[in-house]
Protein backbone atom coordinates (compact mmCIF):
# COMPACT_ATOMS: atom_id res chain seq x y z
CA UNK A 1 0.00 0.00 0.00
CA UNK A 2 1.25 3.47 -0.84
CA UNK A 3 0.32 6.69 0.89
CA UNK A 4 -0.32 10.04 -0.71
CA UNK A 5 0.75 13.40 0.65
CA UNK A 6 -2.79 14.62 1.39
CA UNK A 7 -2.59 16.87 4.43
CA UNK A 8 -0.38 19.25 6.33
CA UNK A 9 0.11 19.86 10.04
CA UNK A 10 0.72 22.90 12.26
CA UNK A 11 4.24 24.15 11.77
CA UNK A 12 4.65 22.51 8.36
CA UNK A 13 5.26 24.48 5.16
CA UNK A 14 5.46 21.92 2.33
CA UNK A 15 4.99 24.61 -0.31
CA UNK A 16 8.30 26.18 0.76
CA UNK A 17 10.30 23.40 2.40
CA UNK A 18 10.55 20.03 0.63
CA UNK A 19 11.59 18.30 3.85
CA UNK A 20 8.16 19.16 5.28
CA UNK A 21 6.59 17.13 2.49
CA UNK A 22 8.37 14.06 3.79
CA UNK A 23 7.56 14.88 7.41
CA UNK A 24 3.85 15.22 6.55
CA UNK A 25 3.89 11.91 4.67
CA UNK A 26 5.51 10.15 7.62
CA UNK A 27 3.21 11.81 10.14
CA UNK A 28 0.18 10.58 8.24
CA UNK A 29 1.59 7.04 8.16
CA UNK A 30 2.69 7.01 11.80
CA UNK A 31 -0.70 8.28 13.02
CA UNK A 32 -2.26 5.18 11.46
CA UNK A 33 0.46 2.82 12.72
CA UNK A 34 0.85 4.11 16.28
CA UNK A 35 -2.59 5.48 17.10
CA UNK A 36 -0.96 8.69 18.36
CA UNK A 37 -1.98 12.19 17.35
CA UNK A 38 -0.29 14.31 14.64
CA UNK A 39 0.55 16.90 17.33
CA UNK A 40 2.69 14.27 19.05
CA UNK A 41 4.32 12.81 15.96
CA UNK A 42 5.09 15.71 13.61
CA UNK A 43 7.37 17.66 16.02
CA UNK A 44 9.19 14.43 16.89
CA UNK A 45 10.35 13.83 13.30
CA UNK A 46 13.75 15.49 13.08
CA UNK A 47 15.79 16.32 9.99
CA UNK A 48 19.29 14.86 10.28
CA UNK A 49 22.38 17.00 9.66
CA UNK A 50 24.58 13.95 9.18
CA UNK A 51 23.38 11.97 6.16
CA UNK A 52 25.13 8.87 7.48
CA UNK A 53 22.28 8.73 10.02
CA UNK A 54 19.54 9.04 7.41
CA UNK A 55 17.38 11.99 6.40
CA UNK A 56 14.61 11.87 9.00
CA UNK A 57 14.67 10.31 12.44
CA UNK A 58 12.15 9.41 15.11
CA UNK A 59 13.44 8.87 18.64
CA UNK A 60 10.73 6.56 19.97
CA UNK A 61 11.21 7.52 23.67
CA UNK A 62 10.21 11.07 22.83
CA UNK A 63 6.63 9.87 22.21
CA UNK A 64 6.47 8.51 25.79
CA UNK A 65 4.37 5.47 24.97
CA UNK A 66 3.92 3.37 28.09
CA UNK A 67 3.63 -0.40 28.41
CA UNK A 68 6.28 -1.49 25.92
CA UNK A 69 10.01 -0.92 25.54
CA UNK A 70 10.96 1.74 22.95
CA UNK A 71 13.16 -0.72 21.03
CA UNK A 72 10.23 -3.14 20.75
CA UNK A 73 7.95 -0.35 19.58
CA UNK A 74 10.50 0.68 16.95
CA UNK A 75 10.57 -2.83 15.50
CA UNK A 76 6.78 -3.16 15.63
CA UNK A 77 6.10 0.17 13.97
CA UNK A 78 8.72 -0.41 11.28
CA UNK A 79 7.07 -3.72 10.35
CA UNK A 80 3.69 -1.98 9.94
CA UNK A 81 4.87 1.02 7.95
CA UNK A 82 3.29 1.24 4.48
CA UNK A 83 5.48 1.93 1.50
CA UNK A 84 5.67 5.32 -0.16
CA UNK A 85 7.45 6.27 -3.40
CA UNK A 86 9.17 9.23 -1.74
CA UNK A 87 10.81 7.15 0.99
CA UNK A 88 12.94 4.06 1.40
CA UNK A 89 11.77 1.53 4.04
CA UNK A 90 12.53 2.55 7.64
CA UNK A 91 15.73 1.40 9.32
CA UNK A 92 15.49 0.24 12.92
CA UNK A 93 18.39 1.37 15.10
CA UNK A 94 17.58 0.24 18.64
CA UNK A 95 15.20 2.96 19.93
CA UNK A 96 15.34 4.98 16.70
CA UNK A 97 13.57 4.78 13.36
CA UNK A 98 15.46 6.29 10.44
CA UNK A 99 14.20 7.10 6.97
CA UNK A 100 16.05 8.02 3.82
CA UNK A 101 14.58 9.98 0.93
CA UNK A 102 14.21 7.97 -2.26
CA UNK A 103 17.08 9.16 -4.50
CA UNK A 104 14.97 8.47 -7.58
CA UNK A 105 12.14 10.77 -6.51
CA UNK A 106 14.12 13.45 -4.66
CA UNK A 107 14.91 15.58 -7.77
CA UNK A 108 11.23 15.56 -8.77
CA UNK A 109 10.31 16.79 -5.30
CA UNK A 110 12.93 19.50 -4.87
CA UNK A 111 13.70 20.92 -8.31
CA UNK A 112 10.16 22.10 -9.21
CA UNK A 113 10.09 24.00 -5.92
CA UNK A 114 13.49 25.56 -6.66
CA UNK A 115 12.34 26.69 -10.11
CA UNK A 116 9.05 28.02 -8.78
CA UNK A 117 10.45 29.97 -5.83
CA UNK A 118 13.68 31.09 -7.47
CA UNK A 119 15.70 33.37 -5.19
CA UNK A 120 13.11 32.90 -2.45
CA UNK A 121 13.83 29.17 -2.18
CA UNK A 122 15.03 28.37 1.33
CA UNK A 123 13.28 31.39 2.85
CA UNK A 124 10.09 31.05 4.84
CA UNK A 125 8.30 34.36 5.48
CA UNK A 126 5.98 32.63 7.97
CA UNK A 127 8.78 32.01 10.47
CA UNK A 128 8.66 34.48 13.33
CA UNK A 129 5.05 35.54 12.76
CA UNK A 130 2.56 35.60 15.62
CA UNK A 131 0.07 33.74 13.42
CA UNK A 132 1.39 32.37 10.09
CA UNK A 133 -2.19 32.21 8.76
CA UNK A 134 -2.63 35.94 9.47
CA UNK A 135 0.60 37.82 8.58
CA UNK A 136 -1.04 41.16 9.39
CA UNK A 137 -0.73 40.37 13.10
CA UNK A 138 3.00 40.94 12.77
CA UNK A 139 6.09 39.25 14.18
CA UNK A 140 6.58 37.66 17.55
CA UNK A 141 8.44 39.55 20.23
CA UNK A 142 11.46 37.55 21.29
CA UNK A 143 12.76 38.12 24.80
CA UNK A 144 15.93 36.38 25.90
CA UNK A 145 15.92 35.70 29.62
CA UNK A 146 19.27 34.33 30.76
CA UNK A 147 17.73 32.81 33.91
CA UNK A 148 16.06 30.32 31.56
CA UNK A 149 19.46 29.18 30.31
CA UNK A 150 20.48 28.42 33.88
CA UNK A 151 17.23 26.49 34.33
CA UNK A 152 17.96 24.48 31.19
CA UNK A 153 21.44 23.66 32.49
CA UNK A 154 19.89 22.30 35.69
CA UNK A 155 17.43 20.32 33.58
CA UNK A 156 20.27 18.80 31.58
CA UNK A 157 21.98 17.66 34.76
CA UNK A 158 18.75 15.99 35.86
CA UNK A 159 17.18 14.73 32.64
CA UNK A 160 19.84 15.00 29.93
CA UNK A 161 20.65 11.98 27.78
CA UNK A 162 23.65 12.28 25.46
CA UNK A 163 22.36 9.59 23.10
CA UNK A 164 18.99 11.29 22.65
CA UNK A 165 20.72 14.65 22.29
CA UNK A 166 22.98 13.40 19.48
CA UNK A 167 19.98 11.99 17.65
CA UNK A 168 17.74 15.04 18.03
CA UNK A 169 19.43 18.02 19.76
CA UNK A 170 16.61 20.55 19.57
CA UNK A 171 13.87 18.07 20.38
CA UNK A 172 15.68 16.64 23.38
CA UNK A 173 16.53 20.07 24.79
CA UNK A 174 12.92 21.10 24.37
CA UNK A 175 11.75 18.01 26.28
CA UNK A 176 14.24 18.78 29.06
CA UNK A 177 13.07 22.37 29.26
CA UNK A 178 9.42 21.32 29.51
CA UNK A 179 10.20 18.87 32.33
CA UNK A 180 12.40 21.22 34.36
CA UNK A 181 9.91 24.08 33.87
CA UNK A 182 7.19 21.84 35.31
CA UNK A 183 9.43 21.13 38.30
CA UNK A 184 10.12 24.85 38.70
CA UNK A 185 6.51 26.01 38.33
CA UNK A 186 5.50 25.78 42.05
CA UNK A 187 8.54 27.84 43.05
CA UNK A 188 7.86 30.40 40.34
CA UNK A 189 4.24 30.80 41.44
CA UNK A 190 5.34 31.28 45.06
CA UNK A 191 7.93 33.86 43.94
CA UNK A 192 5.36 35.81 41.90
CA UNK A 193 2.81 35.68 44.72
CA UNK A 194 5.35 37.01 47.20
CA UNK A 195 6.21 39.84 44.84
CA UNK A 196 2.55 40.80 44.44
CA UNK A 197 2.21 40.93 48.21
CA UNK A 198 5.15 43.28 48.35
CA UNK A 199 7.31 40.85 50.30
CA UNK A 200 11.08 40.62 50.12
CA UNK A 201 11.86 37.88 47.58
CA UNK A 202 15.63 37.86 47.99
CA UNK A 203 15.52 34.71 50.14
CA UNK A 204 13.39 32.89 47.56
CA UNK A 205 15.83 33.85 44.81
CA UNK A 206 18.57 31.92 46.60
CA UNK A 207 16.56 28.73 47.09
CA UNK A 208 15.52 25.75 44.98
CA UNK A 209 15.64 25.78 41.19
CA UNK A 210 15.75 29.57 40.97
CA UNK A 211 18.75 29.72 43.27
CA UNK A 212 20.50 26.99 41.28
CA UNK A 213 19.76 28.75 37.99
CA UNK A 214 21.06 32.10 39.23
CA UNK A 215 24.12 30.41 40.69
CA UNK A 216 24.83 28.64 37.40
CA UNK A 217 24.56 31.84 35.37
CA UNK A 218 26.81 33.63 37.85
CA UNK A 219 29.41 30.89 37.34
CA UNK A 220 29.22 31.52 33.60
CA UNK A 221 29.74 35.25 34.12
CA UNK A 222 32.77 34.46 36.27
CA UNK A 223 34.27 32.30 33.53
CA UNK A 224 33.83 28.93 35.24
CA UNK A 225 35.10 26.39 32.69
CA UNK A 226 32.66 23.65 33.68
CA UNK A 227 29.66 25.98 33.37
CA UNK A 228 30.85 27.39 30.04
CA UNK A 229 31.52 23.90 28.66
CA UNK A 230 27.83 23.00 28.80
Description:
The structure is a single chain. This protein has ten helices and four strands, in the order H-H-E-E-H-E-E-H-H-H-H-H-H-H. With 230 residues, the protein is an alpha+beta fold. It has a four-stranded antiparallel sheet, covered by helices on one side. Strand 3 (91-93) and strand 4 form a beta hairpin. Helix 5 packs across helix 9. The longest helix is centred in the C-terminal third of the chain and has 28 residues, at 169-196. The protein is globular, with a radius of gyration of 21 Å. 21% of the residues are buried. Residues 1-5 and 141-146 have low confidence and may be disordered.
Strand and helix layout:
Blueprint: H1 18-34, H2 38-41, E1 45-47, E2 56-59, H3 70-80, E3 91-93, E4 96-99, H4 106-117, H5 146-159, H6 162-167, H7 169-196, H8 202-205, H9 208-221, H10 225-229
Antiparallel strand pairs: 1-2, 2-4, 3-4
In short:
By secondary structure, this protein is of the alpha+beta class.
User: Strand tally, please?
Assistant: 4
Question: What share of the residues does DSSP label as strand, in percent?
Answer: 5-15%
Morphology? globular
Helix content: 40-55%
Mean pLDDT: 79
Strands in their spatial order, largest beta sheet: 1-2-4-3
Q: Which spans of ≥5 residues are poorly predicted at pLDDT below 50?
A: 1-5, 141-146
Radius of gyration: 21 Å
Secondary-structure-derived class: alpha+beta
Features:
50% helix, globular, four-stranded antiparallel sheet, disordered N terminus, 230 residues
Amino acid sequence: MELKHTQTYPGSFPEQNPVDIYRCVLTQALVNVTGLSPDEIYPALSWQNNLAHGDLLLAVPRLRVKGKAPADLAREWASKMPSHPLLLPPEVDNIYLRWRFSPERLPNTVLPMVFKLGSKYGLNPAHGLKDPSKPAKGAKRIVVEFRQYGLLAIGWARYGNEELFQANPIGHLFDIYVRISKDFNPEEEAYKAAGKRGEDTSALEKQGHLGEAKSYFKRMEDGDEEALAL
